[in-house]
Amino acid sequence: MADLLLILSIISIWISVFISILMMVGAQRFIRRQSKEELIIPQITEQAPPVTVIVPAHNEELVIKATVEHILAMNYPHDKLQVIVIADNCTDDTARKLHELKNNHSYRMRDFMIMERTGTGGKSGALNDALPHATGDWICIYDADAAPERNALLFLIEKALENPESYGAVFGRNKARNRAQNFLSRCINLELVTAQRIYHTGMWELFKLGTIPGTNFIIKTELIREIGGWDEDAITEDTAISFDILSRGQLIALAPQAEAYQQEPEDLKVYMKQRERWAKGNYSVVMDHFHELFKPSSSWRIKVQVLYYGTSYFWFLLAILVSDIIFVINIVYQLLSVFGMDVVMPFQFSSDVYIYLMIAWGLMYYLYVLQINLALAADFGQSNTRNFILACVSYFTYAQLFLLISLKAFVSILLDKVLRRKSKWYKTQRFG
To answer: In the Cβ-directed half-sphere of 209, how many Cα atoms lie within 13 Å?
Structure first.
């Protein structure tokens, strides 16, 4: 039995290794082709479509002023840009700071609307309340801590206009603006860069597959209204809306030059709460769409997306847990035997199988470090000795939090189903 469990774990790890290699191949193809192209800032023309930027803000007094200033300063025709900021159930000075900003002489002629909201539904509810007021052909979403670069919206729109019939949404890249704050923020930065430079680019290059992030993206106004707005019951509204877009035969395109800076958690407790919510949301989406795998009429892209999330959050997690448990118990019993204790190992397996597990783990670690450093090399200024050492260390520290977070999220969502309780939307704490 132990051998069988170990073999299944090894096979699962090898599948994960294969997926990592596949994503790196796709990312390298994308990066190589992009490096040969000259970076040209899109030209502002009269054909630029009107865009509505929506910013949901719940108790964001620490960051909201800087975010809105960045948005209003974007390089896009002022007469084509509508900005709606929602002070959502705020008990701090968010609304006051927004009104002070609007009364600034520089912004008096801008299409800048402030909504003070007391409704329910969290971020999704706020976005849905703003939707009827949107006048743009495209809606752009920025979180309250976002700081889009000056040409971010231009790059998003430029990508959308490459294929306006097929592209229902376009997303850019997000960077950690507080990445140098402490060990946690540095590790989050590595994760963010790797996800965006390897997995996002790899998925787009190989499958023309994208997933909307929570911020720095645009979506057709007509499409989001056809969908019925954002799902207020979804824990991660961005993942849920991504599946809705794909189910309508539309693509979610990557605009790699559209960049925005966001604030990442600097406290472990804040980080754990944020990531547990993300994990619960992804579990929920996989459960809701698992039947698509067996539905002939479902898009193959949806099937790939379900498989990707399913292997990451279910299969691979289970394989790592089983192999970790067997490995740790084996080490403990080996140590006990060294001290002369007569103990019997509960898992009996052949040495060859155990060696194969060690080889699989070694390869997985090597690829983990390799993909991080490939990603860093593609991001200007991030490939350095400190980040290389951090990548090597983070596997044994930061990366292992994924197991704990995923387990907690899985237990939590099971309890939600059994007890029929509604998941609460957690707002990430900001830091001044």
So the answer is: 22
Helices (H), 248-384: 268-289, 300-310, 316-338, 351-377
Residue for token digits 């989001």? 224
What is the rounded radius of gyration, in angstroms, for the C-alpha atoms of the chain? Answer: 23
CA distance readout (Å), 409 to 137, 235, 406: 37, 11, 5
pLDDT digits (tens, 9 = 90+) for 281-332: 888 888 888 899 999 888 899 999 998 888 877 777 777 777 677 767 777 7
Q: Find residue 175's DSSP bridge partners.
A: 261
Amino acid type, 142: Y
Burial of 419 (0-12, 13-18, 19+ CB in 10 A): exposed
Q: Are 285 and 226 in contact (CB under 8 A)?
A: no
Indicate the DSSP class of residue 397: T
DSSP result, 153-167: HHHHHHHHHHSTTTE
DSSP state letter for 243: H
Q: What is the pTM of this model?
A: 0.89
Which pair of tokens denotes residue 24? 């790196």
Other Cβ atoms closer than 10 A to 370:
15
Q: How far is Cα 145 from Cα 292, in angstroms, rounded to an integer?
A: 35
In three-state secondary structure terms, 252 is strand
Cβ proximity of 62 and 430 under 8 Å: yes
128, 84 contact by CB (below 8 A): no
The pair of structure tokens assigned to 338 is 């060294």
Q: Residue 112: beta bridge partners? A: 83
Q: How far apart (Å, rounded) are the C-alpha atoms in residues 207 and 249?
A: 14
| Interacting residues of 280 by C-beta distance below 8 A, sequence separation 6+ | 235, 236, 409, 412, 413, 416, 423
